[in-house]
């Protein structure tokens, strides 16, 4: 077979219906070529195997003996860098004995090691991460192929056919998910080696393309969800009020989290702001956050507020959540039209930070807050009345901001640490988006890198004049 070669020993059975590779021959006896002739293994001499070196005859001569066959010297296997090995699992009876050899190889290319299984049950015992390709030699291959693709989704699959594909079964197998088909009469070392290499590379390309497509779809889905979680505020007519917001995803995943916020001004001049956090991460948490935010906006414009609004939002969460363990925290702030007072409702959420003109930043009272939405069916959320001066700032945030660590220890930033950071940034003259950026960045730096959880921050400001 020119430069291609094929093993000659039949693999021994390793399991019922399953056969592994046979041991390699200890040496290869060859007849020397006559004058003017070349060995059948090519002009460069026979393709050699490199079995273990014999310890009892270390000085065995390499020259051929006169008048007869000669034996190749034994060399250490680890002294020669062999080619890469691809493992082929042949499933079927193999009536022609085409796959009785333990390996196939074309020239110096990768060696194709052959494992055999008479049926899919036996194949399942041989199917490991080391198997690169499966060759199906089954009469009901179209019926069995989906099962193979299910149990080995990352493995290349070839289908063996009898002669030309006149009935279209081989083409149908490729349509279902096989990488290629191979005619039985074409099975030799060069053809099989190239078919296996092609199938393996095509499978890798298919998997890479699928992962790229899934990543793009996930990014598009996250983008749509993010637009729903982080909307444009509706503050037309809110004279003198400044709005700023920041959102930063956590480092623990590429999926969008369940943090959400919104701010609107109703016809009576009241400014309504909210921020919330659905437990968990991923599209389910994000989708539930979008539902709660949209429900809050619609109910607010419909005139519902306070405890009645929270109870309705809890009903929405209970009906839409995937299981009973899912809950959401929420902070709602309703600022009077004259801007001199606000009503705050807390549902298991951290209390906002308030800054009054000429005073140090501080947290709003939180003792009268109620439980998170979805925990208690008969919960009650008290109103917290806050007096505002002519100039004030309110900062709403999710717990991702305060749960970061300080250094490499277990100490967390906490609300007190956040207040200290904000006070320092305000003293430096920062406000608006610059203030939020500085606070989040400082929390990140203290944590030694990106914060684990998502962070959402909303800032409402009203200054004198």
UniProtKB/TrEMBL annotation:
A Pfam family of this chain: SpoIIE
Superkingdom of this protein's organism: Bacteria
Domain PPM-type phosphatase: 238-462
UniProt xrefs under Gene3D superfamilies: PPM-type phosphatase domain
The keyword tRNA processing belongs to this UniProt entry's keyword annotation: no
Low complexity bias (residue ranges): 32-48
UniProt-annotated stretches for the region Disordered: 1-65
Residue ranges with Basic and acidic residues bias: 51-60
Keyword Ubl conjugation: no
Keywords, ordered alphabetically: Hydrolase
Protein name per UniProt: Serine/threonine-protein phosphatase
């Amino acid at each position: 077979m020119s430069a291609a070669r094929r093993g000659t020993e039949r693999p021994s059975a390793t399991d019922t219906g399953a056969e592994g590779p046979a041991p390699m021959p200890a040496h290869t006896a060859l007849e020397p070529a006559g004058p003017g002739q070349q060995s059948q293994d090519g002009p460069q001499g026979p393709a050699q195997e490199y079995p273990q070196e014999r310890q009892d005859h270390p000085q065995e001569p390499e020259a051929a003996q006169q008048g007869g066959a000669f034996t190749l010297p034994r060399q250490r296997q680890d002294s020669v860098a062999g080619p890469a090995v691809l493992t082929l699992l042949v499933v079927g009876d193999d009536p022609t004995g085409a796959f009785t050899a333990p390996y196939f190889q074309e020239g110096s290319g990768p060696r194709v090691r052959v494992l055999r299984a008479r049926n899919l049950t036996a194949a399942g015992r041989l199917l490991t991460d080391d198997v690169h390709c499966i060759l199906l030699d089954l009469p009901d291959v179209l019926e069995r192929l989906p099962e193979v693709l299910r149990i080995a989704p990352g493995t290349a699959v070839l289908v063996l056919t009898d002669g030309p594909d006149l009935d279209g079964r081989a083409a149908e197998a490729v349509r279902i998910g096989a990488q290629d088909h191979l005619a039985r009469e074409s099975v030799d070392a060069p053809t099989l080696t190239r078919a296996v290499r092609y199938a393996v590379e095509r499978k890798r390309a298919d998997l890479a393309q699928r992962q790229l497509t899934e990543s793009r779809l996930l990014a598009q889905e996250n983008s749509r969800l993010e637009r729903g979680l982080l909307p444009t505020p509706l503050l037309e007519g809110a004279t003198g009020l400044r709005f700023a917001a920041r959102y930063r995803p956590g480092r623990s995943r590429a999926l969008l989290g369940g943090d959400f916020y919104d701010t609107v001004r109703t016809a009576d001049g009241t400014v309504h702001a909210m921020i919330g956090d659905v437990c968990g991460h991923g599209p389910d948490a994000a989708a539930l956050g979008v539902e709660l935010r949209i429900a809050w906006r619609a109910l607010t414009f419909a005139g519902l507020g306070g405890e009645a609004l929270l109870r309705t939002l809890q009903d929405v969460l209970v009906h839409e959540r995937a299981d009973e363990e899912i809950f959401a925290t929420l902070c709602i702030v309703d600022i009077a039209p004259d801007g001199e007072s606000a009503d705050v409702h807390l549902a298991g959420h951290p209390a906002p930070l308030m800054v009054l003109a000429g005073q140090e930043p501080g947290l709003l009272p939180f003792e009268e807050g109620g439980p998170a939405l979805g925990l208690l069916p008969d919960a009650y959320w008290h109103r917290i009345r806050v007096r505002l001066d002519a100039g004030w700032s309110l900062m709403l945030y999710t717990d991702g901001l305060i749960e970061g660590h300080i250094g490499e220890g277990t100490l967390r930033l906490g609300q007190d640490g956040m207040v200290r950071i904000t006070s320092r940034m305000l003293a430096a003259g920062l406000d608006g988006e610059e203030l939020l950026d500085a606070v989040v960045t400082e929390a990140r730096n203290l944590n030694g890198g990106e914060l684990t959880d998502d962070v959402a921050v909303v800032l409402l400001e009203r200054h004198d004049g």
